[in-house]
Structures are given as C-alpha cells and as structure tokens.
Amino acid sequence: MICLFSLLVVWSLFVSQCSGGCSEVDSMTEAVAGGGFLLGCISCKKREEVSARATVDWHFKPVGEEEFRHIFHYDHPTADILHDDFSDRLEWYGTRNSDIQMGTIYIHNVTFNDTGTYRCTIHRTLLLSQYDQHVTVVKEVELSVVSVANRELTAVISEIMMYVLIVVLQLWLIVILVYCYKKISEENEARDARKALKAQAELLESKDSCDGVQLE
Rounded CA gap, 37 and 90, in Å? Predict the structure, then answer.
C-alpha cells in the first residue's frame, strides 16, 4: 500500500508539470537585432467557465520620448498594424478566438529603434448571466535590443532548477522501486518459509501416524 501511494505521488508530480490551463508568465525583455521577438501579454480569467470577449491594443514609447504610439489593434479575427514604423513587421500570436487571454504579438526583423516601452491593454467583457462586466488589464514590457543574445540570469536559474527537480524525482522513483522490490522479496521469502514449515510439520505428523500403525 505504501509503495502504491508513493508511486502515485511521484506520478502526480510529473503530471502536474504537464497540466494545461492559463498561466500568467512575464514577457522576455531582450531582443536581438535582425531577429524576431515575441512580446508576451497574458491575462487569465479568474473563472474559466465564464464566457467573455476581448480586444487587445498595443502601444509603444521609444526611448527618450514621452508619448505612446498606438501600433497594433486586434479584434478577432481582424489584426491591424497602426503605425508605419511597424508596417509588415507585427504578427498576432495570441488567442485565436474572441475570448482572448493571451494577447501576444511577434515582431519580425527587430531593429535598435524598437527599444523602449510596450504597453499591452486587454479590454475584456465578461458575459455574466445578469449583466456584462467590463475589465481592463494593462501590462508593460521594457524591451532592450542588443547585437548578441545574452541569457538572462533568471532563465538560467529556472533551467537549472528544472533539471535538478527532474533528477531528484527520478532518484526518488528509483529508491521507491528498490524499496518495493525488497519488500515484495521479503514477503515472498517469508511466505515460502511458512510453506516449508507447514510441509515439514505435515510430514512429521504423517510419519508419526505411520509409526503408530506399525506398533499396532
């Protein structure tokens, strides 16, 4: 029973790493000039069962300027690039229906002029049974553009921790399997020993009966 429970615990830990659902993850903040970059913007609904519809707007403020420029608007299924500096360079990578929880866009052919602050605004309408509730979510990304990619410290630490967790879980699983194997082997040996003792006792009893018959 203990072995089965331990295996179930290990299995649940592995499964939890693969479970689906909405998860709010911050966008990366460093792009490489000449490449592409994914501007992340995720806003999860608190109640998945509630239907909703949403639109997404992206604004951009270059370094040294005070005003934001409206560069992108998405209202499913229509995506509009609203500023010439990003003409033919922005692509919708978010939710492919009107119930938007991921408002991510992709920048093609990143240039150093793309350095600055990006503001993602999700206008969501929750379709409740009695009334519609309007919610606005704003997220900002400070993007820097470099000539050569540098791995962020948090990404390195996260990757290391992921591998450490995998190794620990595998070692734990091996220990549990060895323990269960020994436990089962001991139980089998004990059962065989009981059978041998029982057989020996029956043999002695049979011998005693035969000796009694001969004496008569």
Answer: 10
Cα–Cα nearest to 116, from 31, 43, 34, 36: 31
Whole-angstrom Cα distance, residue 138 to residue 56? 10
Cα–Cα distance measured from residue 157 to residue 155, given in angstroms and rounded to the nearest whole number = 6
Q: What's the predicted TM-score (pTM) here?
A: 0.62
Give which of 97, 89, 12, 33 is closest to 58, Cα–Cα: 89
pLDDT digits (tens, 9 = 90+) for 153-212: 566 777 788 888 898 998 998 999 999 988 898 888 888 888 888 888 777 777 666 555
Q: Tell me if residue 100 falls in helix, strand or coil.
A: coil
Token pair belonging to 200: 């020996």
For residue 77, is the peptide bond before it cis, meaning its omega torsion is within 30 degrees of 0?
yes
